[in-house]
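Researcher: Structure for this, please.
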Amino acid sequence: MAVLVITGTGTEVGKTVTTAAVAAAAVAAGRSVAVLKPAQTGVGPHERGDADEVARLAGAVTTLELGRYPEPLAPATAARRARLAPVRPREVAEAAAKLATEHDLVLVEGAGGLLVRFDDEGGTLADAAALLDAPVLLVVAAGLGTLNTTELTAREIRRRGLDLAGLVIGSWPEPADLASRCNLADLPVVAEAPLLGALPAGAGGRPPAAFRAGAPGWLAPGLGGTWDADAFTGSC
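Model: Predicted structure, token format:
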């Protein structure tokens, strides 16, 4: 896949660290990688954003932001309040397509969830994915409450005719509670999509060298890693 769109079931589910892991695995395999963050919110002009964090963890990747807004709000709201131009889905698609001509893999990391609005016309990451005809990777939480948000997001991805590549658990607790262990079996069922990885809780806090060494072991072969869903599920 030349372009992979990465979204989540909400905020703080591990989208950025998952993006970094996919990037790190690809770089380790000798692929050139670009990371596109269409709209970065809650960060000032000279502060590090999500794309910078991906580069810190993953290593040699190209990064690009299309819009940056200081308040930690949905991109459309943050742009409006800052009186700055919003990012529109067509701009996202055009930027990703250009990066894809220069890189083996382009990762497009959204803000919040799939339907968080980029602009006042209601443009979303889902619209950009449709323009790109790109698969969507869904990052989900591990524990209680994740089944509902996962199923709703997966249904909307399919309703729009998009390809749901699979699920990644953005933060796997150790030890895992009962709900998390049961969700390993239930998540692929409700999403009708495979489980393609599980990142250990706190992975983003590891030193970059340790993160890069560990990343392939957290992701299934479909994402360039060695993680085995059956073995992982059986061990829990």
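Researcher: Any notable elements?
Model: Residues 80 and 86 are 8 Å apart (CA to CA). Strands lie at 3-8, 33-41, 62-69, 105-113, 136-140, 164-172, 195-200.
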